[in-house]
């Protein structure tokens, strides 16, 4: 994809920034930096994250920005390599006795498994606010899966921005 590490963003990176600490009218430079890093080939996300943002946001600033500015950096999950990685990850999840059947079924149906599959396929670092929870049973945390598959994981926006050396 580019020289240097590529970062794959979960929906909560966009949504939390928008709702909690980097609103467009207060810190527009954050959104410009995301665009610049995407243009440089350092940031992507997946179509299922875009779908999630589109589904849960009216015509607000985030949805408009995602569709008008960032839209071309949402990678399609509809390719054989990603699908095969997703199968492998879901198969792994179903063989983990720690998790409930409901957690396994949910994991197979949401964007999380696809994010991890894309990170694995494209050798990206996955960026999300989810925490590693080895004791968790009712949900399969993405950091747990990334650890099992040796996929780099960054657990918050601030560490990710530091790693990119972005100043806003």
The shape is globular
What fold name goes in the CATH topology slot?
A: Rossmann fold
Structural class given helices, strands, pairing? alpha/beta
- Detail the poorly predicted runs: none
CATH homologous superfamily placement = 5'-nuclease
Q: What is the makeup of the main sheet?
A: 5 strands, parallel
How many DSSP H or I helices? 9
Rg on CA atoms, Å: 16 Å
Residue share in helix: 55-70%
CATH class group = Alpha Beta
Total number of domains: 1
Number of strands: 5
Distance between the termini: 24 Å
Task: Sum this structure up briefly.
The chain has 168 residues and is of the alpha/beta class. 57% of the residues lie in helices and 8% in strands. α8 links the parallel β4 and β5.
Molecular structure report:
- It is a single chain.
- The protein is α/β, with parallel strands linked by helices and 168 residues long.
- The chain has a single domain (1-168), classed as 5'-nuclease (Rossmann fold, 3-Layer(aba) Sandwich).
- It has 9 helices and 5 strands.
- Helix 5 (80-94) packs across helix 7 (111-122) and helix 7 (111-122) packs parallel to helix 8 (142-149).
- The longest helix is centred in the middle third of the chain and has 15 residues, at 80-94.
- The two termini are 24 Å apart.
- The mean pLDDT is 93.
């Amino acid at each position: 994809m580019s020289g240097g590490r590529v970062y794959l963003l979960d929906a909560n990176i966009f949504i939390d920034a928008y709702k909690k600490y980097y609103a467009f009218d207060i810190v527009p430079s954050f959104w410009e930096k995301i665009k610049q890093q995407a243009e440089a080939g350092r940031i992507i996300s997946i179509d299922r994250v875009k779908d999630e943002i589109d589904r849960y946001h009216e015509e607000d600033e985030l949805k408009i920005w995602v569709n008008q500015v960032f839209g071309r950096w949402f990678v399609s999950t509809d390719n054989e390599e990603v699908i095969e990685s997703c199968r492998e990850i879901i198969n792994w999840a179903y063989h983990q006795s720690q998790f409930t059947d409901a957690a396994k079924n949910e994991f197979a149906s949401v964007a999380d498994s696809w994010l991890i599959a894309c990170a694995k396929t494209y050798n990206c670092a996955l960026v999300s606010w989810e925490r590693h929870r080895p004791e968790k049973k009712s949900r399969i945390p993405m950091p747990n899966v990334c650890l099992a598959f040796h996929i780099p994981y960054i657990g918050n926006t601030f560490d990710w921005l530091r790693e990119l050396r972005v100043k806003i």
